[in-house]
User: Fold these one by one.
Assistant:
Number 1:
Amino acid sequence: MKRPNINRPRVCTPTQKHRRLLFINRDRRKTIIACALAFLTLLTTTPLAACNSSNKENPEKTEIIVFAASSMTETLTEISSLYADAAPDVALIFNFDSSGTLKTQIQEGAECDVFISAGQRQMDQLDKDSSSDVNAEGLDFVLSSARADLLENRIALVVPPGNPAGIHSFTDMAAALSSGDVLMAMGNSDVPVGQYTQSILKYFDLDEQALAGRGVISYGSNVKEVTVQVSEASVDFGIVYATDAYAAGLDAIDYASAGMCGRVIYPAAVLKGSQNRETAQAFLEFLQGNEAMAVFERAGFSRP
């Protein structure tokens, strides 16, 4: 009996030549894979080497955080460019605000290397070596050995363009406030420029609370806010620092004497919490040098 004719798959047995080709193809594949791996290794390691080389040529900069009174915004910004040339390995980071706000931020733990205040009071409140009458909480943030009186400023009476209220002196200011026909801008009581203004009001026997109750005082949280109110003519006059009057292009029609409000001294100090004390001290010393002082003096500051 014949078996049925079943179509079976044809099995090909490789010849010796086929075997040699298979071995050759395997070798080629190994060579290709090896080359590919080598190429990938080159791609991944070369950028790393380049980065390492770049890091050596451009090492990471040391950051110095500077808390400074808002009245120093323009001058310190200009000085930062000078310091970039003098110390290219240092990056300055500024925080500008009222000295009272900055003092509170430091007290609450904000990271800061150098503090420059527009008044002694805010610095003294952070310095354990200050009188307990001022530093009642016994705060200990200031490195006393790295504290210095950096600058002196002046308190100026400024008016909007055209001086519509016709105020020409502090005496005129006192008379106008007494009559109640004007609106004056001044800083809040927790900022130095406001505290200096309070002294001037007392000098002329003017009651701040009574004036505020009559609606003749407009307050600002820092000197920049007071300056803006005058520049925009939303008030008849304001009391600011001479340097802010200069920066805003306002007419300073009178300056307060030391008898009116005392001297306006800007203390500066390295803080104890700084992780880069030597670098911070170097920046503070640069601020006291001739190059930086030239910038300060052009804006109306002077050496104390």
Number 2:
Amino acid sequence: MFEGIFNSLKHSVENFNVVDILDIAVVVVLVYFLLKLTSKTRAIQVLKGFGVIIILAQITDFLGMSTIAWLFDYIINAGALVLIVLFQPELRRALERIGTGNILDRNLSEYNEILTRIDKIIASCLYFSKTRTGALIVIENKTGLNDIMETGTKLNSDITSELLENLFFPNAPLHDGAVVIRGGKILAAGCFLPLSDNRLIGQDLGTRHRAALGISEVSDSVTIIVSEETGVISIAKDGKLIRYIDSKALRDTLTAIYNLEEVNAKRRRLNILRRRRKR
């Protein structure tokens, strides 16, 4: 069996040419845009499962497991029609986007969405500082924080200044814990963070600062802290605490987190492309 696999791979490599490279590239591009179009719809989970079935079908067929291969082929043939029926609304919207150029529009609006998100976080932090309201805002990066979110109350709400201010309002049910943000969503509030055991932390810093440092030591997240005693805004990142953050430094930090400069560069390129299309 393994000799057959080796011979088949050897034959494929020997006959690999430019057409095969082009064929693979086209498939990769099509799959990428399919995933991008369905990434925020309920279809994505079904597509993932369908993809697993296709891979298993190829493996069983390659290994000569005829019965299982036949079963998978039957599921794929029937499943394609079922997918079209189930996700007809999503497919229609995707085709409309392609036909009307809404993919470009969506990329162009991404910059404004991120900019608005940053403005709302900054406005809330400045409000907390002015009113000396304690706040602890964790912004997730590449390291997942699902275990942290399990300790709090799940929200999955859009970021708004009003919601953040209500969550940290003194004596509110969730004001003592941390808010966890992923992208443009407040995923959870009232979360408990691991406390740092760093003995170099100043005696004037409270539990919020120790918690912010603790989560920054075990993840690549960025945490914004507002002291309820002094109103001072601080940032914890990579196990380090930066204090006395003003609005400009806070904006610079959030701009880096959300890759705003990269999104802005993409926006400019798309604007140029749009102007060329109109000519």
